[in-house]
């Protein structure tokens, strides 16, 4: 069991960076006139869905709009050049953050993880796959990966296979070794499961994929925000994540791809801004990564994502990871004290920063609503892993997820909230 002393972050000063954490909440915002009851302090434990945004990231957006709002890549004028430099350098910053030594050429800005999956699925999958091929996923994929590759399978005839999840929430690696064979062209795996918290052995899976000359796509939506990720150490061919889960804004995410592979891929969207020469008959493409960024990109979002990366790195990814591990273990231990609570996934000291569970006899939506009355924000539902919930034999679960600004006291508030729900439904 962890100790209070071992928490590595100065959470009080970190919390001061996030004005929203000062909020009080109350009432029902979905009913006109009822959402303004400022009753109870916010306890924000829904970070796996979206994290909060520190002031300096918001200020980076404001600064862009107040000081140098202009379109990128094309302008000769001063503002456009300032915006272009900031936007382009943001790619380098993000590349560096995930250990991509090729810099900006290996990082495409997308809307989010989902769009990054779709980019590869369409640019590569639809063009390269056929009925003789297989795509290997895990049973714990988020719909962003699962639905995308499933649909590619349907369109191309490629077989979609799923690596089994064991009872304890880990992957059956013998099954992985069986499934990934000479027919396999793509292995798409979630790094940290957003439902089970499992940390998957992506480097090992990359080896299995590469032994068969297949690519590996790592869904890092729940790992890049919370731990140090090195695309080259894990030998990922592609890796994707979303800004809004890592202190950045919504509407911006990134796809890392090995340069040699991205060079070969077709653009995913067509239009202006990513072309070099256009005639009435054909078009040629800009250099990486702009080839994949057709149209006006989310300029302020890209710049703010780089600011978020700076913010996280200033605090230290290893310390953020440790802080979350301690909170998660504490939450796991406290929730495990109750016989009527079932927790899904690996033990508390072997998971990413989240705990999904169910309280006997109480639907997760009801539990979430009771917790919300106490200011506690958690997520209820299938967390975009419906097939995994089907496999677990449950319609939904309740998920608490932690980040750098959460405290033990907030975990205590969660446990007390669950107690209250238990009494209400007794
Ligand atoms: C593991 C995982 N993959 C993909 C996604 C999709 O992210 P986005 O909605 O930002 O595209 C999420 C979001 O919850 C996730 O947790």
List the helices and strands and how they pair.
Blueprint: H1 11-15, E1 24-25, E2 40-41, E3 43-44, H2 55-67, H3 78-97, E4 107-110, H4 113-128, E5 134-138, H5 143-156, E6 159-163, H6 173-179, E7 184-190, H7 202-211, E8 215-219, E9 238-242, E10 253-257, H8 259-264, E11 275-278, E12 283-285, H9 299-315, H10 317-336, E13 341-344, E14 354-359, H11 364-373, E15 376-377, E16 379-381, H12 386-392, E17 397-401, H13 408-425
Parallel strand pairs: 3-15, 5-6, 5-7, 7-8, 8-9
Antiparallel strand pairs: 1-2, 4-10, 9-10, 11-12, 13-14, 14-17, 16-17
Pyridoxal-5'-phosphate binds at residues 48-49, 112-114, 142, 144, 190, 194, 219, 221-222, 242, 253, 384.
Family: Belongs to the class-V pyridoxal-phosphate-dependent aminotransferase family. Csd subfamily.
Cofactor: pyridoxal 5'-phosphate
Enzyme class: transferase
Provide structural commentary.
By secondary structure, this protein is α/β, with parallel strands linked by helices. The chain folds into 2 domains: 11-51 and 316-424, Aspartate Aminotransferase, domain 1, CATH 3.90.1150; 57-314, Aspartate Aminotransferase, domain 2 (3-Layer(aba) Sandwich), CATH 3.40.640. 38% of the residues lie in helices and 16% in strands. The chain is built from 13 helices and 17 strands. The protein has helices at residues 11-15, 55-67, 78-97, 113-128, 143-156, 173-179, 202-211, 259-264, 299-315, 317-336, 364-373, 386-392, 408-425, and strands at residues 24-25, 40-41, 43-44, 107-110, 134-138, 159-163, 184-190, 215-219, 238-242, 253-257, 275-278, 283-285, 341-344, 354-359, 376-377, 379-381, 397-401. It has a 7-stranded mixed beta sheet, sandwiched between helices. It has a 4-stranded antiparallel beta sheet with strand order 13-14-17-16, covered by helices on one side. Strand 11 (275-278) and strand 12 (283-285) form a beta hairpin. Helix 4 packs parallel to helix 5 (143-156) and helix 10 (317-336) runs parallel beside helix 13 (408-425). The radius of gyration is 22 Å and the shape is globular. The model has no long low-confidence stretch (mean pLDDT 96). The structure holds pyridoxal-5'-phosphate.
């Amino acid at each position: 069991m962890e100790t209070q002393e071992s928490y590595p972050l100065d959470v009080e000063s970190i919390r001061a960076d996030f004005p929203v954490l000062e909020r009080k909440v109350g009432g029902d915002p979905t009913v006109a006139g009822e959402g303004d009851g400022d009753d109870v302090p916010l306890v924000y434990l829904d970070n796996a869905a979206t994290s909060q945004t520190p002031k300096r990231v918001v200020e980076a957006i404001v600064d862009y709009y107040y000081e140098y709002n202009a379109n990128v890549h094309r302008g000769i004028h001063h503002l456009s050049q300032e915006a272009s430099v900031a936007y382009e350098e943001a790619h380098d910053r993000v590349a560096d953050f995930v250990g991509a030594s090729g810099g900006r050429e290996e990082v495409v800005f997308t809307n989010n993880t989902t769009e990054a999956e779709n980019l590869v699925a369409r640019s590569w999958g639809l063009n390269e796959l056929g009925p003789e091929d297989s795509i290997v996923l895990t049973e714990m994929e988020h719909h962003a990966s699962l639905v995308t590759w499933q649909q590619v399978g349907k369109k191309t005839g490629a077989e979609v296979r799923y690596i089994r999840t064991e009872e304890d929430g880990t992957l059956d690696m013998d099954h992985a070794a069986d499934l990934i064979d000479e027919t396999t062209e793509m292995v798409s795996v979630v790094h940290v499961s957003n439902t089970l918290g499992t940390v998957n052995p992506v480097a090992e899976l990359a080896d299995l994929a590469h032994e068969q000359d297949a690519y590996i796509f790592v869904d890092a939506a729940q790992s890049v925000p919370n731990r140090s990720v090195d695309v080259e150490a894990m030998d990922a061919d592609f890796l994707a994540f979303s800004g809004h889960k890592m202190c950045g804004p919504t509407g911006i995410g990134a796809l890392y791809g090995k340069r040699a592979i991205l060079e070969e891929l077709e653009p995913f969207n067509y239009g202006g801004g990513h072309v070099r020469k256009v005639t009435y008959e054909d078009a040629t493409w800009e250099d990486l990564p702009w080839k994949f960024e057709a149209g006006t990109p989310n300029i302020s979002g890209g710049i703010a994502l780089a600011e978020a990366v700076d913010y996280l790195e200033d605090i230290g990814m290893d310390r953020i990871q440790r802080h979350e591990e301690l909170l998660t273990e504490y939450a796991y231990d406290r929730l495990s004290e109750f016989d009527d609570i079932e927790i899904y996934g690996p033990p508390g000291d072997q998971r990413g920063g989240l705990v999904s569970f169910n309280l006997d006899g109480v639907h997760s939506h009801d539990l979430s609503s009771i917790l919300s009355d106490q200011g506690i924000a958690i997520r209820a539902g299938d967390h975009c892993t419906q097939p995994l919930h089907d496999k677990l034999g449950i319609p939904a679960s309740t998920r608490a997820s932690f980040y750098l600004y959460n405290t033990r006291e907030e975990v205590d508030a969660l446990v007390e909230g669950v107690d209250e729900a238990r009494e209400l439904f007794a």
